[in-house]
Design goal:
The protein is of the alpha/beta class. It has one domain: Vaccinia Virus protein VP39 (Rossmann fold), CATH 3.40.50.150. The chain has seven helices and nine strands. A seven-stranded mixed sheet has the order 3-2-1-6-7-9-8, with helices on both faces. Helix 3 links the parallel strand 1 and strand 2. Helix 2 packs parallel to helix 3. The protein binds S-adenosylmethionine.
């Protein structure tokens, strides 16, 4: 209970710091944690990525969009399989006048076959073909299937810009640890960082010099 209160207060402080005072789409246990969001804010300010793709919409979409608007750079596409969650995130984006920097794509989960295994992951048909400079992986929900977030890298790697950075939330969970281990084994051009956050975070960065050949 105390931990939840502290998290809620940290979310409110982050919202206040970004001038988001007309309500936040915060859902206990589901929203990205404030320390993970703070890392994203720091990354956006430092690296100023132009094309941001997110898996799993919500509070993180609003935060990313707001920082893009404040920085005058960057545009967010958020893949969301739940129509109700997509609508809620769109409402928040519209409430703050951020629709020009963020688009929530309703992307139903569809079956993919990767290395002789089946995965249900986002339908990518609505996603524009621009090179992705920042990829934030916070969906689909881990409880849907084992390694539910693994397809992000194999399915999006051809669209990643050289030097692209990937943030994975909930990286302390056994499933996410397995996903990171697999990504690192399959894509050795990525360098792994593990900044300390309450729920765990993995940051993978493609090395620009080798990214185009080895991804
Ligand atoms: C970890 S959540 C994504 C959270 C998002 N990045 C944020 O910061 O709010 C992953 C997915 O869970 C689903 N989800 C979100 N809230 C939910 C709820 N209250 N009940 C069930 N599913 C939910 C949505 O489809 C969402 O994309």
């Amino acid at each position: 209970m105390q931990a939840h209160r502290a998290e809620l207060e940290a979310v409110l402080r982050l919202g206040e710091a970004l001038g988001l005072e007309q309500g936040l789409p915060y859902v206990r246990h589901w929203s990205a944690a404030p320390d993970f969001l703070a890392l994203l804010v720091e990354h956006l300010r430092r690296e100023r990525p132009a094309v941001i793709v997110e898996c799993g919409s919500g509070l993180s979409t609003l935060i990313l969009a707001r920082v893009c608007a404040l920085e005058g750079r960057g545009r967010v596409w958020s893949l969301e399989h739940e129509p109700g969650c997509a609508a809620q995130t769109r409402d928040a984006i519209a409430r703050y006048g951020l629709a020009r920097v963020a688009t929530v794509l309703h992307a139903p989960l569809r079956r993919y076959r990767l290395d002789a295994e089946n995965y249900d992951w986002y339908d990518l048909r609505g996603l524009p073909e621009q090179a992705i400079e920042l990829l934030v992986v916070d969906g689909p929900p881990g409880r849907l299937a084992p390694l539910a977030r693994y397809p992000a890298l194999p399915l999006l790697r051809a669209r990643l810009a050289p030097g692209c950075t990937i943030f994975l939330d909930d990286a302390n969970r056994p499933d996410e640890r397995a996903i990171v281990a697999r990504w690192c084994a399959e894509y050795p051009a990525f360098e792994l960082g593990r900044p300390a956050t309450a729920r765990g975070c993995a940051v993978l960065r493609a090395q620009p010099a080798v990214a185009s050949e080895a991804l």
